[in-house]
Every structure is written in C-alpha cells, then in structure tokens.
Write a structure and sequence with these properties.
The protein is mostly helical. The chain is 80% helix and 0% strand. Keywords: Membrane, Transmembrane, Transmembrane helix.
Length: 71
Amino acid sequence: MQLPLKHGKANIKKMSLVPFVILGILAFTGTSSLNLSYFWRGYVVLLETQAGLVILYFLMHKLSKIYAAKP
C-alpha cells in the first residue's frame, strides 16, 4: 500500500518516536527478566541502550536515503 507523497513525509515524521519507544520497551523487558544484581542490571541496560541507539541511527539513516530516492 502506497501513501500519497504529500502525506508520506508527515507520517514518517510523526512516527520517528516509535523506534525509540520500541527500543526502550525491549531494553526494559530484556533486563527485567534477568536474575542479576541492581548494578549489573543497570550496566546491561546502558549497554543495550547504547547499542540500540547506534543501530537505530544507522537504520533510520538508511531508510531516509531509501525514501528520499523514491520519486
């Protein structure tokens, strides 16, 4: 399903928060199920978040190039 071009960019800007919310939910659920001390749990959350932000940055950059290349 293709969206009209004039509405496509607006929808992408509105949904730019969604990947970060998903990252937060995954980091929370991933560490809450671990049986670690609070120190290690916090450390794992920081590592997951940093890695997730780097991956999201490159993924969003790649997707923006794909959407910009379409006529």
